[in-house]
Amino acid sequence: METEVLGIEMVDGPIERAAALIREGMTVAFPTETVYGLGANALDPGAVARIFAAKGRPADNPLIVHVAEPEEAEAIAIVPPAARLLMKAYWPGPLTLVMRKKEIVPDAVTAGLDTVAVRMPAHPVALMLIRASGVPIAAPSANRSGRPSPTTAAHVLTDMAGRIPLILDGGPCSVGIESTVLDVSRNPAVLLRPGDVTPAMIGKVLGSSVEIPAAMLRALPEGAAVRSPGLKHTHYAPRAPLTVVMGPPGAVAFHIQSRVEENSRKGISTGVLATAETVGRYDGDYVISLGSRSEPRQMARSLFSALRRMDEQGVDRIYAEGISPEGEGLAFMNRLLRAAGFTVIDVEAP
Ligand code: TXA
Ligand code: MG
Question: Which pTM value belongs to this model?
Protein backbone atom coordinates (compact mmCIF):
# COMPACT_ATOMS: atom_id res chain seq x y z
CA MET A 1 0.00 0.00 0.00
CA GLU A 2 1.28 3.47 -0.77
CA THR A 3 0.76 6.11 1.92
CA GLU A 4 -0.30 9.51 0.63
CA VAL A 5 0.42 12.68 2.66
CA LEU A 6 -1.90 15.58 1.89
CA GLY A 7 -1.29 19.06 3.28
CA ILE A 8 -4.69 20.50 3.93
CA GLU A 9 -3.81 23.87 2.44
CA MET A 10 -2.21 22.49 -0.72
CA VAL A 11 -4.59 20.07 -2.37
CA ASP A 12 -8.21 20.37 -3.38
CA GLY A 13 -10.60 18.34 -1.33
CA PRO A 14 -8.25 16.37 0.95
CA ILE A 15 -10.88 16.31 3.70
CA GLU A 16 -13.46 14.93 1.24
CA ARG A 17 -10.97 12.31 0.11
CA ALA A 18 -10.26 11.34 3.72
CA ALA A 19 -13.96 11.25 4.58
CA ALA A 20 -14.64 8.97 1.61
CA LEU A 21 -11.95 6.55 2.86
CA ILE A 22 -13.52 6.59 6.35
CA ARG A 23 -16.96 5.81 4.89
CA GLU A 24 -15.42 2.93 2.88
CA GLY A 25 -14.13 1.36 6.11
CA MET A 26 -10.48 2.41 5.67
CA THR A 27 -8.14 4.21 8.10
CA VAL A 28 -6.89 7.81 7.82
CA ALA A 29 -4.34 9.63 10.01
CA PHE A 30 -5.39 13.15 10.97
CA PRO A 31 -4.19 15.98 13.22
CA THR A 32 -5.77 16.80 16.56
CA GLU A 33 -4.62 19.46 19.02
CA THR A 34 -3.06 16.73 21.21
CA VAL A 35 -1.37 14.22 18.88
CA TYR A 36 -2.12 12.73 15.44
CA GLY A 37 -4.85 10.11 15.49
CA LEU A 38 -5.39 7.04 13.30
CA GLY A 39 -9.10 7.13 12.56
CA ALA A 40 -11.75 4.77 11.27
CA ASN A 41 -15.56 4.52 11.40
CA ALA A 42 -16.27 3.75 15.07
CA LEU A 43 -19.51 1.96 14.20
CA ASP A 44 -17.88 -0.49 11.75
CA PRO A 45 -16.03 -3.38 13.46
CA GLY A 46 -14.15 -4.23 10.25
CA ALA A 47 -12.84 -0.67 9.95
CA VAL A 48 -11.84 -0.65 13.63
CA ALA A 49 -9.94 -3.92 13.12
CA ARG A 50 -7.81 -2.13 10.50
CA ILE A 51 -6.65 0.36 13.17
CA PHE A 52 -5.43 -2.43 15.45
CA ALA A 53 -3.69 -4.14 12.51
CA ALA A 54 -1.91 -0.98 11.30
CA LYS A 55 -0.68 -0.08 14.80
CA GLY A 56 0.11 -3.59 15.98
CA ARG A 57 -2.05 -2.70 18.99
CA PRO A 58 -3.10 -5.31 21.57
CA ALA A 59 -6.84 -6.01 21.13
CA ASP A 60 -7.49 -5.52 24.88
CA ASN A 61 -6.67 -1.78 24.67
CA PRO A 62 -9.86 0.18 23.87
CA LEU A 63 -10.08 3.21 21.57
CA ILE A 64 -11.34 6.77 22.00
CA VAL A 65 -14.39 7.72 19.91
CA HIS A 66 -14.16 11.26 18.48
CA VAL A 67 -17.29 13.34 17.92
CA ALA A 68 -17.83 16.81 16.39
CA GLU A 69 -20.59 17.99 18.78
CA PRO A 70 -21.25 17.29 22.48
CA GLU A 71 -24.76 16.08 21.51
CA GLU A 72 -23.21 13.27 19.44
CA ALA A 73 -21.89 11.73 22.66
CA GLU A 74 -25.50 10.98 23.65
CA ALA A 75 -25.86 8.54 20.74
CA ILE A 76 -23.01 6.35 21.93
CA ALA A 77 -22.91 6.79 25.72
CA ILE A 78 -25.07 7.38 28.78
CA VAL A 79 -23.96 10.91 29.66
CA PRO A 80 -24.04 11.65 33.42
CA PRO A 81 -24.55 15.23 34.72
CA ALA A 82 -20.86 15.55 35.68
CA ALA A 83 -19.90 14.79 32.08
CA ARG A 84 -22.25 17.50 30.80
CA LEU A 85 -20.59 20.09 33.03
CA LEU A 86 -17.13 19.05 31.86
CA MET A 87 -18.15 19.09 28.19
CA LYS A 88 -19.46 22.60 28.64
CA ALA A 89 -16.21 23.72 30.22
CA TYR A 90 -13.58 21.87 28.18
CA TRP A 91 -15.04 20.63 24.87
CA PRO A 92 -13.82 20.94 22.24
CA GLY A 93 -10.48 20.16 23.83
CA PRO A 94 -8.05 17.63 25.31
CA LEU A 95 -10.43 15.89 27.72
CA THR A 96 -11.70 12.34 27.12
CA LEU A 97 -14.68 11.13 29.15
CA VAL A 98 -15.24 7.44 29.92
CA MET A 99 -18.98 6.71 30.23
CA ARG A 100 -21.35 3.72 30.13
CA LYS A 101 -21.61 2.69 26.50
CA LYS A 102 -24.71 2.26 24.37
CA GLU A 103 -25.45 -0.87 22.34
CA ILE A 104 -24.49 0.77 19.04
CA VAL A 105 -20.75 0.85 19.96
CA PRO A 106 -19.01 -2.34 18.76
CA ASP A 107 -16.97 -4.45 21.21
CA ALA A 108 -13.95 -3.97 18.95
CA VAL A 109 -13.85 -0.28 20.03
CA THR A 110 -14.24 -0.84 23.78
CA ALA A 111 -12.30 -4.10 24.01
CA GLY A 112 -15.46 -5.66 25.41
CA LEU A 113 -15.79 -3.16 28.30
CA ASP A 114 -19.23 -1.76 29.18
CA THR A 115 -17.82 1.79 28.98
CA VAL A 116 -16.71 3.91 26.03
CA ALA A 117 -14.19 6.79 25.92
CA VAL A 118 -15.45 9.88 24.05
CA ARG A 119 -13.78 13.13 23.10
CA MET A 120 -14.52 16.20 20.97
CA PRO A 121 -11.16 17.40 19.62
CA ALA A 122 -10.44 21.12 19.11
CA HIS A 123 -8.43 20.88 15.90
CA PRO A 124 -10.39 22.28 12.93
CA VAL A 125 -9.19 19.52 10.58
CA ALA A 126 -10.33 16.81 12.99
CA LEU A 127 -13.73 18.45 13.35
CA MET A 128 -14.10 18.89 9.57
CA LEU A 129 -13.16 15.25 9.00
CA ILE A 130 -15.69 13.91 11.51
CA ARG A 131 -18.42 16.13 10.06
CA ALA A 132 -17.61 15.22 6.46
CA SER A 133 -17.51 11.51 7.30
CA GLY A 134 -20.92 11.64 8.98
CA VAL A 135 -19.87 9.03 11.57
CA PRO A 136 -18.07 9.09 14.93
CA ILE A 137 -14.37 8.30 14.41
CA ALA A 138 -12.50 5.85 16.63
CA ALA A 139 -8.87 6.90 16.84
CA PRO A 140 -5.88 5.98 18.94
CA SER A 141 -2.62 7.90 18.57
CA ALA A 142 -1.21 7.22 15.08
CA ASN A 143 2.06 5.61 16.21
CA ARG A 144 3.12 1.97 16.00
CA SER A 145 2.15 0.42 19.32
CA GLY A 146 4.70 1.20 22.08
CA ARG A 147 6.36 4.13 20.22
CA PRO A 148 6.13 7.82 21.17
CA SER A 149 2.88 9.41 19.99
CA PRO A 150 3.22 11.41 16.74
CA THR A 151 2.99 15.19 16.91
CA THR A 152 3.73 15.85 13.22
CA ALA A 153 2.67 14.22 9.94
CA ALA A 154 6.33 13.22 9.42
CA HIS A 155 6.23 11.19 12.68
CA VAL A 156 3.15 9.38 11.42
CA LEU A 157 4.83 8.64 8.10
CA THR A 158 7.88 7.19 9.90
CA ASP A 159 5.69 4.69 11.74
CA MET A 160 2.90 4.06 9.24
CA ALA A 161 4.32 4.33 5.70
CA GLY A 162 2.84 1.52 3.62
CA ARG A 163 0.37 0.55 6.35
CA ILE A 164 -2.34 3.20 5.87
CA PRO A 165 -3.66 4.94 2.74
CA LEU A 166 -3.67 8.59 3.82
CA ILE A 167 -2.21 11.11 6.27
CA LEU A 168 -3.77 14.58 6.54
CA ASP A 169 -0.95 17.02 7.35
CA GLY A 170 -2.18 19.80 9.63
CA GLY A 171 1.25 20.86 10.95
CA PRO A 172 2.60 20.27 14.47
CA CYS A 173 0.16 19.57 17.33
CA SER A 174 -0.23 22.44 19.81
CA VAL A 175 -0.66 20.38 23.01
CA GLY A 176 1.76 17.60 22.07
CA ILE A 177 0.64 14.91 24.54
CA GLU A 178 -2.56 12.88 24.53
CA SER A 179 -5.80 14.01 26.15
CA THR A 180 -6.66 13.69 29.81
CA VAL A 181 -8.77 10.53 30.30
CA LEU A 182 -11.36 10.76 33.08
CA ASP A 183 -13.77 8.00 34.12
CA VAL A 184 -17.05 9.76 34.88
CA SER A 185 -19.02 6.51 35.02
CA ARG A 186 -18.00 6.45 38.71
CA ASN A 187 -18.44 8.86 41.56
CA PRO A 188 -16.01 10.39 42.40
CA ALA A 189 -14.57 10.58 38.90
CA VAL A 190 -11.27 8.74 38.44
CA LEU A 191 -8.31 10.10 36.49
CA LEU A 192 -7.10 7.38 34.10
CA ARG A 193 -4.49 9.42 32.20
CA PRO A 194 -3.26 12.93 33.08
CA GLY A 195 -3.14 15.53 30.29
CA ASP A 196 -3.47 19.21 29.54
CA VAL A 197 -6.78 19.42 31.44
CA THR A 198 -5.51 19.00 35.01
CA PRO A 199 -7.23 17.45 38.05
CA ALA A 200 -7.47 20.97 39.52
CA MET A 201 -9.30 22.21 36.40
CA ILE A 202 -11.70 19.25 36.61
CA GLY A 203 -12.22 19.68 40.34
CA LYS A 204 -13.09 23.33 39.84
CA VAL A 205 -15.93 22.44 37.45
CA LEU A 206 -17.26 19.47 39.43
CA GLY A 207 -16.91 21.13 42.81
CA SER A 208 -15.39 17.92 44.13
CA SER A 209 -11.97 16.33 43.91
CA VAL A 210 -10.90 13.71 41.45
CA GLU A 211 -9.48 10.32 42.44
CA ILE A 212 -5.88 10.01 41.23
CA PRO A 213 -4.65 6.39 41.23
CA ALA A 214 -1.03 5.83 42.32
CA ALA A 215 -0.38 4.19 38.93
CA MET A 216 -0.13 7.67 37.40
CA LEU A 217 3.55 7.84 38.39
CA ARG A 218 4.45 4.29 39.33
CA ALA A 219 4.87 0.97 37.62
CA LEU A 220 1.97 -1.39 38.27
CA PRO A 221 2.77 -4.45 40.31
CA GLU A 222 2.77 -7.66 38.24
CA GLY A 223 -0.79 -8.90 37.68
CA ALA A 224 -2.46 -5.84 39.23
CA ALA A 225 -6.08 -5.10 38.28
CA VAL A 226 -6.28 -1.97 36.12
CA ARG A 227 -9.16 0.34 35.39
CA SER A 228 -7.76 1.48 32.09
CA PRO A 229 -6.12 -1.20 29.98
CA GLY A 230 -3.79 1.42 28.49
CA LEU A 231 -2.05 1.71 31.88
CA LYS A 232 -0.51 -1.70 31.66
CA HIS A 233 1.07 -1.55 28.22
CA THR A 234 4.57 -0.32 27.40
CA HIS A 235 4.45 3.23 26.15
CA TYR A 236 6.29 5.96 24.34
CA ALA A 237 9.58 4.09 24.38
CA PRO A 238 12.51 5.48 22.42
CA ARG A 239 14.92 2.88 21.00
CA ALA A 240 17.72 3.64 23.50
CA PRO A 241 17.27 2.94 27.22
CA LEU A 242 16.06 6.10 29.01
CA THR A 243 16.83 7.01 32.63
CA VAL A 244 15.05 9.82 34.51
CA VAL A 245 17.15 11.70 37.06
CA MET A 246 15.28 13.41 39.91
CA GLY A 247 16.61 15.92 42.43
CA PRO A 248 17.78 19.53 42.72
CA PRO A 249 18.46 20.83 39.17
CA GLY A 250 22.17 21.51 39.74
CA ALA A 251 22.81 18.05 41.18
CA VAL A 252 20.78 16.44 38.41
CA ALA A 253 22.79 18.21 35.71
CA PHE A 254 26.07 17.29 37.43
CA HIS A 255 25.06 13.63 37.61
CA ILE A 256 23.94 13.46 33.97
CA GLN A 257 27.02 15.28 32.64
CA SER A 258 29.22 12.79 34.55
CA ARG A 259 27.38 9.90 32.86
CA VAL A 260 27.80 11.59 29.44
CA GLU A 261 31.56 11.83 29.96
CA GLU A 262 31.94 8.35 31.39
CA ASN A 263 29.94 6.86 28.50
CA SER A 264 31.89 8.88 25.97
CA ARG A 265 35.17 7.36 27.22
CA LYS A 266 33.66 3.93 26.54
CA GLY A 267 32.47 4.94 23.05
CA ILE A 268 28.81 5.05 24.13
CA SER A 269 26.84 8.01 22.73
CA THR A 270 24.47 9.64 25.19
CA GLY A 271 21.48 11.90 24.58
CA VAL A 272 20.27 14.39 27.20
CA LEU A 273 16.76 15.78 27.62
CA ALA A 274 17.55 18.95 29.56
CA THR A 275 15.62 21.96 30.80
CA ALA A 276 16.17 25.59 29.83
CA GLU A 277 17.59 26.26 33.30
CA THR A 278 20.39 23.71 33.02
CA VAL A 279 20.99 23.14 29.30
CA GLY A 280 24.16 25.26 29.44
CA ARG A 281 25.70 22.83 31.96
CA TYR A 282 26.03 20.04 29.41
CA ASP A 283 28.81 19.35 27.02
CA GLY A 284 27.58 16.58 24.76
CA ASP A 285 26.58 16.04 21.15
CA TYR A 286 22.90 15.28 21.66
CA VAL A 287 21.48 17.74 24.17
CA ILE A 288 17.90 18.97 23.73
CA SER A 289 16.19 21.52 25.99
CA LEU A 290 12.51 20.73 26.44
CA GLY A 291 11.81 24.17 27.90
CA SER A 292 11.67 25.83 31.28
CA ARG A 293 10.94 23.87 34.47
CA SER A 294 8.41 26.56 35.25
CA GLU A 295 6.49 25.70 32.02
CA PRO A 296 5.66 21.98 32.22
CA ARG A 297 3.10 22.32 29.41
CA GLN A 298 5.85 23.55 27.09
CA MET A 299 8.05 20.62 28.18
CA ALA A 300 5.19 18.20 27.48
CA ARG A 301 4.70 19.68 24.01
CA SER A 302 8.35 19.02 23.13
CA LEU A 303 8.74 15.58 24.71
CA PHE A 304 7.59 13.13 22.02
CA SER A 305 9.37 14.82 19.14
CA ALA A 306 12.54 14.99 21.27
CA LEU A 307 12.33 11.23 21.93
CA ARG A 308 11.96 10.64 18.21
CA ARG A 309 14.95 12.91 17.49
CA MET A 310 17.03 10.80 19.86
CA ASP A 311 16.01 7.76 17.81
CA GLU A 312 17.05 9.52 14.60
CA GLN A 313 20.44 10.43 16.11
CA GLY A 314 20.91 6.77 17.00
CA VAL A 315 22.11 7.49 20.56
CA ASP A 316 22.91 4.49 22.77
CA ARG A 317 21.59 5.91 26.06
CA ILE A 318 19.29 8.77 27.06
CA TYR A 319 19.15 10.70 30.36
CA ALA A 320 16.28 13.07 31.14
CA GLU A 321 15.89 15.63 33.91
CA GLY A 322 12.80 14.93 36.01
CA ILE A 323 10.62 17.77 37.29
CA SER A 324 8.06 18.01 40.07
CA PRO A 325 4.95 15.94 39.21
CA GLU A 326 2.68 18.54 40.82
CA GLY A 327 -0.03 20.43 38.92
CA GLU A 328 0.81 20.82 35.24
CA GLY A 329 3.93 18.68 35.79
CA LEU A 330 1.85 15.52 36.33
CA ALA A 331 1.10 14.83 32.65
CA PHE A 332 4.71 15.44 31.62
CA MET A 333 6.14 13.16 34.33
CA ASN A 334 3.55 10.46 33.59
CA ARG A 335 4.75 10.26 29.96
CA LEU A 336 8.44 10.62 30.78
CA LEU A 337 8.39 7.88 33.45
CA ARG A 338 6.52 5.50 31.13
CA ALA A 339 8.96 6.23 28.30
CA ALA A 340 11.72 5.29 30.77
CA GLY A 341 9.95 2.10 31.85
CA PHE A 342 10.07 3.73 35.34
CA THR A 343 13.87 3.69 35.50
CA VAL A 344 14.62 6.54 37.93
CA ILE A 345 17.73 7.72 39.77
CA ASP A 346 17.38 10.10 42.74
CA VAL A 347 20.32 12.39 43.41
CA GLU A 348 20.82 14.76 46.30
CA ALA A 349 22.31 18.18 46.65
CA PRO A 350 26.12 17.88 46.90
O1 TXA B 1 -5.37 12.84 22.68
C2 TXA B 1 -5.82 11.70 22.51
O3 TXA B 1 -6.55 11.16 23.33
C4 TXA B 1 -5.41 10.96 21.23
C5 TXA B 1 -6.02 11.71 20.05
C6 TXA B 1 -5.83 10.97 18.75
O7 TXA B 1 -7.37 11.97 20.29
N8 TXA B 1 -5.83 9.60 21.29
C9 TXA B 1 -5.23 8.68 22.09
O10 TXA B 1 -5.72 7.40 21.99
O11 TXA B 1 -4.32 8.96 22.84
P12 TXA B 1 -4.98 6.13 22.59
O13 TXA B 1 -5.71 4.97 22.05
O14 TXA B 1 -3.53 6.20 22.27
O15 TXA B 1 -5.24 6.21 24.12
C16 TXA B 1 -6.54 5.91 24.63
C17 TXA B 1 -6.45 5.66 26.12
C18 TXA B 1 -5.82 4.33 26.41
O19 TXA B 1 -4.99 4.49 27.54
C20 TXA B 1 -7.02 3.44 26.70
O21 TXA B 1 -6.71 2.36 27.54
C22 TXA B 1 -7.99 4.42 27.37
O23 TXA B 1 -7.78 5.63 26.66
N24 TXA B 1 -9.39 4.00 27.20
C25 TXA B 1 -10.11 3.96 26.07
N26 TXA B 1 -11.34 3.49 26.31
C27 TXA B 1 -11.42 3.24 27.63
C28 TXA B 1 -12.44 2.72 28.50
N29 TXA B 1 -13.65 2.38 28.03
N30 TXA B 1 -12.15 2.59 29.80
C31 TXA B 1 -10.95 2.95 30.28
N32 TXA B 1 -9.94 3.43 29.51
C33 TXA B 1 -10.16 3.57 28.21
MG1 MG C 1 -1.48 5.87 22.22
Answer: 0.95
- 229: DSSP letter: G
Q: Running along the chain, 350 residues long, what does each successive block of 10 average in pLDDT? A: 82 86 98 98 98 93 97 98 98 98 98 97 97 98 95 98 97 98 96 97 96 82 63 75 96 97 97 98 94 98 97 97 96 95 89
Distance CA 158, CA 70 (A): 33
**If you measure from the C-alpha of residue 284 to the centroid of ligand 1, how many angstroms do you get, rounded to a whole number?**
37
How many Å apart are CA 108 and CA 8, to the nearest integer?
A: 30
State the Rg of the chain over Cα: 20
Please tell me the distance from the alpha carbon of residue 12 to that of residue 35, in angstroms, as a whole number: 24
Q: Ligand 1 pocket by C-beta < 6 Å: which residues?
A: 32, 34-35, 37, 61-64, 94, 96, 98, 110, 113, 115-117, 119, 121, 139-141, 178-179, 181, 192-193, 228-230
Q: Is the peptide bond before 92 cis (omega within 30 degrees of 0)?
A: yes
